[in-house]
Design goal:
Length: 871
C-alpha cells in the first residue's frame, strides 16, 4: 500500500494536527470520533496518534464519514455516544461492547476501503482499545500498513477492580517521587496500557509516625492550632496538597481511579513504630515527620474536622480505605464511637463514595454501623497472610491465627452477602527487589477472587517497602549501581510484572504475543524465548518457599523476606519451620514423627518439596544457559541484570532443596538420637550453604550492598553476603555439636530405612466437581481412585467456607463398581450461612499419598455454592 493515504474523522483539535491532506503526497491519519469523549478516551487516542506519527503518518480531520477520502478509514467511539463507531460496528457484523470497560476492535471494510473500528463500552474501554492498537502499530514492520498487527477482538474485564497499591513508609523516599510529575506521567501511562483501573496510596503503615494521621501533611485544621506535623511549613503543606491533586488528575486522565488508605488515626508507637531501633534517640523531642497534638481527648473531634477538610480539599478522590483496629492507634474501647461518628460525617460529606474497611481486627459492630448508614462499603482482607503464597486461598492457615481475622477471609464469607471483598496480595513482603512475572499465577489468582462473587484484587508495587523503618535523615538508596543501570525510574525495570498482572487480570486469555514482542525488542529474537521462559519459571520459586518451608513468625511483611533471608540462621531454627498451608505441606517435624512411626501421608513431604526445588532450579539454569548462548555478544545491562535475578532465584531453589532434606534429618536426629542422622543433616547443611554462597557470587555487586527494605533489627536490610556469614557461623556451631559424639552409640529409637520403592506413584483420582448443593439436603460425593499397588484408603475432607473451622473427615467407601468410592455428607451440615468446600485424600498400599485436586494445576479444593433460593 505504497504512499497510502489514511484519512479518519476527528474532533477538530483533538490530536492537534489539522488540514494536512493538502500537503504533497502525505500519509494522513485522523480518527472518526464520537462527541463528547472523556479524558481517558482522549488519552488513548492521543497515544495512538503518537504511535502513528512514529511510523510516518500525519493526521487530518474531515467533516463527515462520507468525506473520508483516504484509502483507510478509522472510527472510534463509545456505546453511550451512539455514533459512527457503534453504527459501523453493528453494520459490519460486530457486537457492541456489553459491560463496563469492555471493548471491540474490528478490522473490516467500508465502501471498498479497509476500515478499523475502535469501540468502547465507556471511556476506559475505548482507551484500552486505542492503547492496544497503538502498541500494535509499533509492532508493524510495514510502513505502508500501520495496522498490519491489529486483529479483531472483543474483550471485557474478568476481574472488575484491578488495583495497585503503594506505600509512604519513608518521607524522603516518598517525596523523591511525590513531586515528580514526569514520574507519575510515566507511571500512570504504564498502568493504563496494562489496564489497571485503581491505584491506592497507603498513608501510615509501621512507619515510625510519618503520616499518622496524614491530614497535617496537607493543611492545618481550623480549631486545632496545636495539631501539626513536625518540621513542616505552610508552603510545604500547600505543595503537598497541590501534588496530590495533580497526581489524581494525571491518573484520571488515564482512566485510573485513586484511593488513599488512612491507616493511622493517632500515633501511640507500639507496632506503629515498625520495629525501628532508633526511636529511643527521640525521647525528649519529636521524631521528624510525626504529627504532634492529637490526644485521646481531641481524637474524635480532630479526626471529624480534619477528614471533612481532607475530603473537601481533594475533590477528585475516588476511595478511602480505613484501618479499623488497634494498629491504627485506636484502643478497642474507642472504636465503636469513633467509627460511628466518622462514618456519619463521611456519608454526609461524600455520599456514595467507596469506603473500604480492612478486615484485620475489625469487629462486626463497626461493619454493621457502616452498612446501617448506607455507606458504599467493602471489606479488604489479606489473601495469603502478609506474604506471596500460592495462587489459591490457603487450604488451612496456621492454627495460631485460625480463629481471628488477622490473615485470610476468616469468617467473613457469611450469607446473606452484605458487602464485597477486596482480595489483597501482600506480595511486597516477598518479591521486594527481584524480577517477578508468572502469567499462570495471575490467571489462577484472578480466578480465585470470584470466591464470594468478589472479583476484586489489589497487588503491591515492586519495591513496596523500600526505605521502611529507616532513619529520618537517611537518603533513599539506588537499587542498582549506576554502571549497571538501564532505566530512568526503578519501577520501569519491572515492566513485565505490570504486564501480567494488569492485562491478564483484565483478560486471562490475553495472547502471549503481547509480551513476546517486548521481550524480542529488549533481548533479540533468539534470546527472548529463553529469557521469558526463565523468568516465568523463576517466578514460581518464592511463592513455593512461602507455602512450604516458611517460618510462621516471619509472616508480617515487616518481619520476613524470602528473597534474602535464609529463614533460619541455624539448621535447628530452620528445622522448626512449618510452611504456611499446613494442610498441603508436611512440616519437617511432622515428617520425622511420621517416619519414626512408620506412617503415611497425603501431604507433600519434605522429600517431594526438595525434588520440586531441585527440578525448578535445573529448569531455570537451563534457560539461563540457552539465553546466554543465544544472545552472544549482544548482551546489555538489562540482559545481565535479568540473568542475575534468575541465578539468585535458581540458587534459592537449590538452597531450600538441600536444606529441606537437612532439616528432616535434623529432626530425625533430635527425636531418635541417631548420630548418623546428624551426619546426614550436616552434609545437607553444608550443601545448602554452598548454594547460598553461589547466590552471593551471582548477586556480586549488581545490587547495592545495603538493600534497606525494612527494619534492621528484623534483618530486612543488607545483602545476601550478610546472610552467608550467619549461616557459616551456624554451621560451625552444628559441627561443634557433632564433635565428640560416638557414632556407634545406639539411637533411642530406630530410624526405619526405606527400601527402594517398587511403586513411587500416588493413586490417580478422578472426581466430578460438584458446583451446587441445597441447604439441609445430603450430598453424595463419588470418586474414581485407582493404583497398581492397590488403594489403601480414600478420605473426604470438608468444611464450611470459613477459616475458623477445621476439616471434617469421612472415609469414602468402595462401591460395587471397581475403583469407585463414595461418601455422603449429612444434610444438617448444609446451612444457609455458609458455602461448602471439600477435597479428597488417597493413599495406596505402597504408602504413596495424594490430595485431589492438585495444587500444582488448580485450586486444591472444590467450592460448592449453596442454592439458597431453592424451594
Amino acid at each position: 500500500m505504497s504512499r497510502a493515504l489514511l484519512c479518519v474523522l476527528i474532533v477538530p483539535g483533538l490530536l492537534g494536527v489539522e488540514n494536512l491532506c493538502a500537503a504533497e503526497n502525505p500519509r494522513a491519519v485522523s480518527l472518526v470520533v464520537d462527541r463528547p469523549l472523556g479524558r481517558a478516551a482522549r488519552h488513548g487516542l492521543a497515544t495512538l496518534q503518537s504511535a502513528l506519527q512514529v511510523k510516518g503518518w500525519i493526521e487530518q480531520s474531515v467533516a463527515s464519514l462520507d468525506a473520508a477520502a483516504g484509502e483507510i478509514v478509522v472510527v472510534a467511539g463509545t456505546v453511550p455516544g451512539n455514533g459512527a463507531a457503534v453504527r459501523t460496528l453493528l453494520e459490519t457484523g460486530g457486537a457492541a461492547p456489553p459491560a463496563a470497560e469492555a471493548l471491540a476492535v474490528r478490522n473490516t471494510a467500508w465502501r471498498g476501503k479497509p476500515m478499523l473500528i475502535l469501540c468502547g463500552a465507556d471511556d476506559r474501554g475505548l482507551m484500552y482499545a486505542a492503547l492496544d492498537t497503538a502498541e500494535r502499530v509499533g509492532w508493524s514492520t510495514t510502513p505502508s500498513d500501520p495496522f498490519r498487527e491489529v486483529h479483531d477482538v472483543q474483550e471485557q474485564p474478568y476481574v472488575r477492580d484491578r488495583s495497585l497499591s503503594v506505600y509512604t513508609m519513608n518521607r524522603a523516599y516518598w517525596e523523591s517521587r511525590f513531586y515528580d510529575e514526569v514520574y507519575w506521567t510515566r507511571y500512570f501511562d504504564m498502568l493504563a496500557v496494562n489496564r489497571f483501573n485503581r491505584f491506592l496510596i497507603v498513608f501510615g503503615y509501621e512507619n515510625g509516625g510519618f503520616l499518622a494521621p496524614p491530614y497535617p501533611y496537607f493543611f492545618d485544621t481550623p480549631g486545632f492550632p496545636n495539631v501539626h506535623m513536625a518540621d513542616l511549613t505552610r508552603e510545604q503543606q500547600r505543595r503537598n496538597l497541590a501534588a496530590l491533586n495533580r497526581l489524581i488528575e494525571l491518573a484520571h486522565e488515564r482512566g485510573v481511579a485513586v484511593g488513599v488508605g488512612i491507616w493511622d488515626h493517632i500515633y501511640r508507637a507500639g507496632v506503629q513504630a515498625g520495629g525501628i531501633e532508633w526511636a529511643g534517640e527521640y525521647r525528649d523531642r519529636p521524631i521528624p515527620g510525626t504529627v504532634q497534638g492529637v490526644t485521646a481527648e481531641n481524637l474524635n473531634a480532630y479526626t471529624l474536622a480534619a477528614l471533612k477538610e481532607f475530603l473537601t480539599a481533594i475533590p477528585g478522590l475516588d476511595e478511602v480505605q480505613f484501618r479499623i483496629h488497634e494498629e491504627s492507634g485506636l484502643k478497642r474501647e474507642e472504636m465503636d464511637t469513633f467509627w460511628r461518628e466518622v462514618f456519619q460525617m463521611a456519608q454526609r460529606v461524600k455520599p456514595g463514595m467507596l469506603f473500604e474497611a480492612r478486615a484485620k481486627g475489625t469487629p462486626d459492630s463497626v461493619i454493621n454501623t457502616a452498612l446501617s448508614l448506607g455507606m458504599n462499603l467493602r471489606v479488604e482482607t489479606k489473601y495469603w497472610m502478609e506474604q506471596m503464597g500460592m495462587p489459591f486461598h490457603p487450604t488451612h492457615i496456621n492454627p495460631n491465627d485460625q480463629r481471628n481475622r488477622r490473615h485470610g477471609y476468616a469468617d467473613l464469607l457469611r450469607y446473606p452477602k452484605r458487602f464485597d471483598i477486596n482480595w489483597r496480595l501482600w506480595n511486597g513482603g516477598t518479591t521486594r527487589v527481584l524480577l517477578w512475572a508468572d502469567p499462570d499465577y495471575v490467571r489462577r489468582y484472578s480466578a480465585s477472587t470470584f470466591l464470594y462473587d468478589s472479583a476484586i484484587w489489589d497487588v503491591q508495587e515492586p519495591l513496596a517497602t523500600k526505605m521502611e523503618a529507616q532513619r529520618p535523615d537517611a537518603k533513599p538508596f539506588e537499587l542498582i549501581p549506576a554502571k549497571y543501570r538501564y532505566y530512568d525510574y526503578e519501577f520501569e525495570r519491572y515492566w513485565h510484572f505490570f504486564q501480567v498482572w494488569g492485562r491478564l487480570g483484565y483478560n486471562p486469555t490475553t495472547p502471549p504475543e503481547l509480551w513476546r514482542h517486548e521481550f524480542q525488542r529488549r533481548f533479540g529474537a533468539a534470546a527472548a524465548p529463553h529469557v521469558e521462559a526463565g523468568l516465568h519459571r523463576a517466578s514460581q520459586v518464592l511463592p513455593y518457599i512461602v507455602a512450604s518451608v516458611y517460618p510462621y513468625g516471619l509472616f508480617p511483611t515487616t518481619r520476613g523476606w524470602a528473597e534474602r533471608q535464609s529463614l533460619g540462621a541455624t539448621l535447628a531454627a530452620y528445622a522448626g519451620n512449618t510452611g504456611s498451608d499446613v494442610q498441603q505441606f508436611e512440616s519437617f517435624k511432622d515428617a520425622a514423627d511420621r517416619i519414626l512411626a512408620g506412617g503415611v501421608t497425603p501431604r507433600r513431604t519434605p522429600e517431594a518439596t526438595s525434588r520440586w526445588f531441585d527440578g525448578t532450579a535445573d529448569a531455570i539454569q537451563a534457560e539461563i544457559d540457552r539465553a546466554e548462548k543465544s544472545i552472544g555478544e549482544n548482551r546489555g545491562n538489562e540482559f545481565d541484570s535479568t540473568m542475575t535475578d534468575l541465578r539468585i532465584l535458581a540458587g534459592l531453589a537449590r538452597f531450600h532443596a538441600r536444606r529441606s532434606i537437612a532439616a528432616l534429618h535434623y529432626n530425625l536426629y533430635k527425636s531418635a538420637g541417631d548420630v548418623k542422622e546428624l551426619d546426614d543433616a550436616i552434609a545437607g547443611e553444608r550443601a545448602a550453604i554452598g548454594a547460598w554462597r553461589w547466590i552471593v557470587d551471582a548477586a556480586g555487586d549488581r545490587y547495592t550492598f545495603d538493600l534497606a527494605m525494612g527494619a534492621r533489627r528484623f534483618d530486612l536490610s543488607g545483602h545476601w553476603r550478610d546472610e552467608l556469614a550467619k549461616l557459616e557461623q551456624g554451621f560451625s556451631e552444628l559441627a561443634q555439636e557433632r564433635r565428640g559424639m560416638d557414632a556407634s552409640q545406639p539411637p533411642r529409637k530406630p530410624v526405619p530405612k526405606a527400601a527402594a520403592p517398587s511403586d513411587s506413584d500416588p493413586p490417580k483420582v478422578v472426581c466430578e466437581r460438584i458446583p451446587r448443593a441445597s441447604p439441609a439436603q445430603p450430598l453424595r460425593i463419588v470418586a474414581n481412585v485407582t493404583d497398581p499397588s492397590g488403594v489403601a484408603s480414600v478420605r473426604l475432607r470438608y468444611r464450611h467456607v470459613t477459616q475458623f473451622e477445621d476439616y471434617e473427615t469421612l472415609e469414602m467407601q468402595p462401591m460395587s463398581e471397581p475403583g469407585m468410592y463414595a461418601a455422603t455428607v449429612p444434610g444438617d451440615f448444609f446451612v444457609p450461612q455458609w458455602d461448602f468446600m471439600y477435597f479428597i485424600e488417597a493413599i495406596d498400599k505402597a504408602g504413596n499419598g495424594v490430595m485431589w485436586p492438585d495444587l500444582a494445576k488448580e485450586m486444591p479444593y472444590v467450592i460448592v455454592k449453596l442454592d439458597r433460593n431453592a424451594p
